[in-house]
Amino acid sequence: MISIKPPEPTPPLRGLVLAGGRSTRMGVDKSTIDYHGKPQFEYLHDLLIPYCDAVFVSVNAEQANQLAGSRFNLIEDQALVAGPLIGILTAFEQQSAHHAWLAVVCDLPLLSEQSIRKLVENRKPDKMATVIWDSDFRFPDPSLCIWEPAVYPAILRAIEAGTPYPRTILMTNDIELVEIDNIQELTNANTPGDMALIRQILQTGKQPF
């Protein structure tokens, strides 16, 4: 008699707002800038809630002190790696390596619930990650990505190899790529000029030329 192995259960999904950067180009903590009537990290946090069993905010030590006692679940960056990978790695190590992590960077003020929903609906749990195309449709954009538990060993291997870069990890592993409907949502706000442009877009509803 042939034994058929039951399918593996889909790992539950947790949300992660990556807010722990130093914001040196902006001059102020860009995760606290108000574009939508609340700090940007809170706006993204609330966008993720309907799609995750819990949502966390990845923060540095100073932010952890400022937000202590708030309604937010905090993960203080402690992984021994620099750069944008630190929040994702810390989430796997401190919280759960058995959950998938829907991670979003904090400098996407135009990101909508529609794009998050499309990513989740097109999730492929049997792959290492489900991620959006970048604005040129050339590379995966880790700004909005579901990192499956299976990618955790690949992250550790990349760190050991001296290439702890989210995009490199995505490009060298089996992933699912998703095209969002409005590529303008990938507009980053990293400088005061970017912030002014974002505010103009939000006010007028279109990109200035």
Question: Care to describe what's here?
Answer:
- Keywords: Cytoplasm, GTP-binding, Magnesium, Metal-binding, Molybdenum cofactor biosynthesis, Nucleotide-binding, Nucleotidyltransferase, Transferase.
- It is found in: Cytoplasm.
- Residues 15-161 form the MobA-like NTP transferase domain.
- Its EC number is 2.7.7.77.
- The chain has one domain (13-204): Spore Coat Polysaccharide Biosynthesis Protein SpsA, Chain A, CATH 3.90.550.10.
- It has helices spanning 40-48, 61-67, 85-94, 113-121, 152-160, 166-171, 192-204, and strands at residues 13-18, 54-59, 73-76, 100-105, 129-133, 140-147, 175-178.
- Helix 2 links the parallel strand 2 and strand 3 (73-76).
- The protein is an alpha/beta fold.
- Helix content is 30%, strand content 19%.
- It has a seven-stranded mixed beta sheet, with helices on both faces.
- The chain contains seven helices and seven strands; from the N terminus they run βαβαβαβαββααβα.
List keywords for this structure.
single chain, 209 residues, alpha/beta, Spore Coat Polysaccharide Biosynthesis Protein SpsA, Chain A, seven-stranded mixed β-sheet, 7 strands
